[in-house]
Amino acid sequence: MITVENLTKRYGRFTAVDDISFTVRPGSVVGFLGPNGAGKSTAMRMMTGLTPPTSGGATILGQTYRSIPNPGSRVGVMLDAAAQHPGRTGREVLRLTGIQLGVPRSRVEEVLHLVGLTDDEASRRVRNYSLGMRQRLGLASALMGDPEVLILDEPANGLDPQGIHWMRGLLRGFADRGGTVLLSSHLLHEVQVIADELVIIGRGRLVAQGAKEDLLARGGVTARSLDDRALVAAAGASGVTATETAGGVVLDTDAATVGRLALEAGVVLTHLTSGETAGLEEIYLALTSADDREGAAA
To answer: Which helix (H) or strand (E) holds 184?
Structure first.
C-alpha cells in the first residue's frame, strides 16, 4: 500500500506539489495523471526518498521508503529509464542491481525473459539501446527484487503498440496477484484500459481522484460545434457550467439540455458524447484545462 498525506514541496516561492493526499491499495493500479509540470515526478521522487518534502509525507507498506530495509526488494521504482550507465550491457546493469539487492544471479535471466529482452539485446551496450529497450531494461531493474509495490513514471514511453499491450498485461497481472501499482503516463487510453482508480493533479494540486468508473460517469456531456465559444456563452446564460477544452466543450448537464441550448443559440453541433461513454481524454482535458500549455487550437 502507498499512503500520501498532505504532501507538499516548495522551492522558494514556487510550490511544485501542494498538499496532495491519496492512497494506492494492494491489488490495484492507480493512474497518476497531470500535464507536464503538474508535479507528478516531484511527488514520486518524494515518495521514494529522493526529494525531501517541505511538509506532509508518504509511506509505502506502512513505512517511509528510506525506513524499509533493502527497499528495492519490496518496492520497484522506475522514474527515469535513461538513468543507466551507457557503457554497460543490459545484463551487467541487472547483475549490479541484483548484487545490491542480494538476489540470486539467476534472477537476471528471469527478468530479462519477463520484460522481453533477448540474449542479443541483453549483451549490447546501453548506449546502443532504443528508447523502448531502455524502458524494458528500467522495468527489469524495478522487478529484480520481486517487489510488492511498483512506482513507475512513464513506463510505456517509447514502446511500440505491441510493447504497450505487453506492458498492460504485465502490470495488470502484477496487480491481480495482490501487487500495488502507481503509474504515471500521458498515454490516456492505456491508463483508461488498465487503471482501477485515477489521481489527477494540476499545478501541483489535486483536481480529482476516485474510481475510474465514477470519474468517467460524472463527466457530464462533451460537445463539439461550429462555434464552441457561442455554445459556452449560451450555457453560461442558462446557468449551466461549461468549459472549453482542446477536446471540445464539457458541460455539466445532460445531452437533451445541450441540444436545446445549441438550438436556441443557433449553434450547429458536430459531436455530442454523454458522460456514460465519455473517454478519459475528455475528462482529463476538462479537469486540467487551466494548465494547458498549448491553449486552444488555432
So the answer is: strand 180-184
Q: Which residue matches cell numbers 508535479?
A: 39
Q: Are 197 and 211 within 8 A, CB to CB?
A: yes
| CA distances from residue 259 to 36, 151, 222, 242, 279 in whole angstroms, order as listed | 34, 44, 11, 14, 20
Helices (H), 9-127: 40-47, 90-101, 106-115, 119-122
Cα–Cα distance, 258 to 223 (Å, whole number): 8
Number of H-type helices and E-type strands within the chain: 11, 13
User: How remote is the C-alpha of 1 from its chain's centroid?
Assistant: 17
DSSP reduced 3-state for 145: coil
Strand, coil or helix: what is 297? coil
Instruction: Answer whether 93's CB lies under 8 Å from 141's CB.
Output: yes
CA diameter of the chain: 71
Pairing state between β 248-251 and 242-245: antiparallel
Tens digits of residue pLDDT in 5-35: 999 999 999 999 999 999 999 999 999 998 8
240: which residues sit within 8 A by CB, 6+ positions away? 251, 252, 253, 257, 261
Question: Closest Cα partner for 135 from 81, 200, 58?
Answer: 81
CB 162 within 8 A of CB 170: no
Residue segments in the chain with a per-residue pLDDT below the cut of 50: 277, 293, 295-298
What gap in Å lies between CA 225 and CA 231, rounded to an integer? 8
Walk across the sheet containing 197-202 and list its strands: 75-78, 149-153, 180-184, 28-33, 197-202, 205-211
Percentage of residues in the chain with pLDDT exceeding 90? 65
